[in-house]
Amino acid sequence: MKNIPFLDLKQVYLELKTEIDIAFQRVMSSGWYIQGEELAAFEVEFAEYCNVKYCIGVGNGLDALHLILRAMDIGDAGDEVIVPSNTFIATWLAVSYAGATPVPVEPDEKTYNIDPNKIEVAINEKTKAIMPVHLYGQPANMDPILEIANRYNLKVIEDAAQAHEARYKGKRVGGLGNAAGFSFYPGKNLGAYGDGGAVTTNDPIIAEKIRRLRNYGSQKKYLHDVKGVNSRLDELQAAFLRVKLRHLDEWNARRKVLADMYLKELANVPYLTLPFVPEWADPVWHLFVVRTPERERLQNHLLDCGIQTLIHYPTPPHKQGAYIELDHLNLPISEQIHKEVLSLPIGPTMAPSDAVQVTNVIKRFFNNG
Fold first, then answer.
1. pLDDT recorded at residue 77
2. Model's pTM, two decimal places?
3. Three-class SS of residue 231?
């Protein structure tokens, strides 16, 4: 049996080796490595891709969300931001770093994204924003979230770290709220060769503030108007991302082929819950996440057969040591999801025959009891 990695980043590089190497040589020969022409070009190209007016490259996805909050002046003592209970901890950390308090809301158990029907009860006079996450590459249900935000005069910040090119009712994420934070961590659908991130927005004030905040609070050298940070997407990563952006749609289409195979072949497997895709959602399958009460046994069996899987995520944020003060919260849906989810291999260079091998092993596992 062939060994199947969860995601083969080396093959992703080899497929684009010529283009990536040319971009590397172009940047290295330029002698300019921070905030130069490559970053400026990428910001224009990614803004156009997301159908927004502005893109600001930053150091990583966590910084993107953190700086959005800073630019919105959210973070005074007592400020609260509504976040999903079912997400990677970075969503919560961004709120904490800004000085605000994350207020978790349980997910829709079918989509795993924040449940709009549970948001309103969490709103009070301290609430400043809602931060939905497009988890696993599937967009959150944005219309009811935006309606609630408009009614209570709240900001909406998209955590789009896993959702490059995902669409909600035909519109790409990144421009659905007041601003969005993207991650370009190497394993993302649009990944750099190191850390990287970006903010997208249609708001010129937010864009201007983040440009200043990311560069020590400065727009002109040695003049610092605010207490900023050092969070800049460098020229090399911007050049690599420009190359990869040209291939993103094709790579996401390949992921969809694999996801469709999984959905078809595993449709009737007992004790296995497959991803649910609402009619208004067009996911990009950053992750293909199944649920089963037999997760540990299934994962070990797949590994014995040479198939690597991962768990996104084994422990919800409120049960992490970083948020021990919230350990008392009763969030049973999120806790159950975290006990059962398993991410199957998926990626732009994975062969359809590999997906067949994965499904055959899973079917044999459950059919054999």
1. 82
2. 0.97
3. coil
